[in-house]
Design brief:
alpha+beta; Pnp Oxidase, Chain A; eight-stranded antiparallel sheet; 25% helix; globular
Length: 158
């Protein structure tokens, strides 16, 4: 297996294919990482959520990261880390950005379900307010593992 550093263009192409990542945020020197459904477009990662620990923490400290993997096999994968800034998209002020996020996310299968499943169990019949947010990308880096010719691997990685 050989490791190659990905170019920014390769990272952004992989981001465009991604639908799940791990969102990292922190508060008072305590990290917190959760999986999220996401969509990438034009320098932003878009996410739908409900109010909870990650939203509370990102409101207090908007510096976040997202880790994304594509894994074909043990010797054929890529991994990226995106550093950026949390930007909440409240309904009245960011209607166009919310609609853009909704359109991008709607291309993913059951994109809304994870955000609401746990909250619905806690809230019962109460209405749950969706929170759309985006991460303005400051930097993205990635590495790709490529199988050596003697190793057998299938699939494609950007």
């Amino acid at each position: 297996m050989m490791l190659d550093k990905m170019t920014e263009q390769e990272c952004r192409a992989a981001l465009a294919r991604a639908s799940i990542g791990r969102l990292g945020c922190s508060l008072d020197d305590q990290p917190y990482v959760v999986p999220v459904y996401l969509a990438y477009d034009s320098g932003y990662i878009y996410v739908l959520s409900t109010y909870g620990q990650k939203i509370e923490w990102m409101r207090a400290n908007p510096k976040v990261c997202v880790e994304i993997d594509e894994i074909v096999g043990e010797s054929r994968w890529l991994s990226m880390v995106v550093n950026g800034r949390y930007e909440e998209l409240p309904e009245t002020r960011y209607e166009d950005a919310r609609e853009h996020a909704r359109e991008r996310l709607a291309k993913r299968y059951h994109w809304w379900e994870p955000a609401f499943a746990e909250r619905q169990l806690q809230a019962g019949d109460r209405l749950i307010d969706p929170i759309f947010f985006r991460i303005r990308i400051d930097a993205v880096t990635g590495f790709r593992a490529v199988a050596e010719p003697s190793e057998s691997a299938t699939g494609t990685l950007g």
